[in-house]
Structure formats: structure tokens, C-alpha cells
Amino acid sequence: MTLAELVRVAGARWSMEECFQAAKSQVGLDHYQVRHWTSWHRHITLAMLALVFLTAVASAVPHRGTEPHHPTRNMSRYI
Question: What is the structure's pLDDT at 37?
Fold first, then answer.
């Protein structure tokens, strides 16, 4: 494995961690109290759909002087 591949993999892992952190803090990905797999699956699916919706809304809003694609900014102000 080359150094360039290692850097690419590390960068991809970092962006995924940022995405999960945003999902946990903004749409409650980690706020579930379920006992069955079906309930857990529904909660995770709805939380991820909410994050996709917030991301789409945030990308449609014009940005003034900020970094437009920062995944951890608070998107709840657009609701």
C-alpha cells in the first residue's frame, strides 16, 4: 500500500467520523432506547433521512463568507 493510498483512506475515515458526529449532535442518531432490531433500524433510518434533508436545505441557502461545505456546522437554524 502506497503512502498516497494511506492518506486517502485516513481522509475518508475522518470525513465519515465528522458525518457521524454531525448526525449525533443534530438529528439525535445516538438518542435511541429500543429493544428490537426493527425499532433500531427505523430510528437510524429516520435520523439519517433527517440529516440528508438538513444537508440539502443548508446547501440551497447562499453562504456569506463561510466555508460552505463544513459538515459540523449547526444546520438546525434552517428549519
Answer: 92
Mean pLDDT of the chain: 81
| Exposure class string for 63-76: b at 16+ Cβ within 10 A, else e | eeeeeeeebeeebe
DSSP state of 71: T
Going by C-alpha positions, the residue among 18, 14, 16, 44 that lies closest to residue 29 is 44
**What are the b/e assignments for 2-20, b being 16+ CB within 10 Å?**
eeeeeeeeeeeeeeeeebe
What residue segments make up the domains of the chain, in order of their start? 3-60+70-78
**For the range 41-44, what are the long-range contacts, defined as Cβ-Cβ under 8 Å and sequence gap of 24 or more?**
none
The yes-or-no verdict on residue 68 having pLDDT over 70 is no
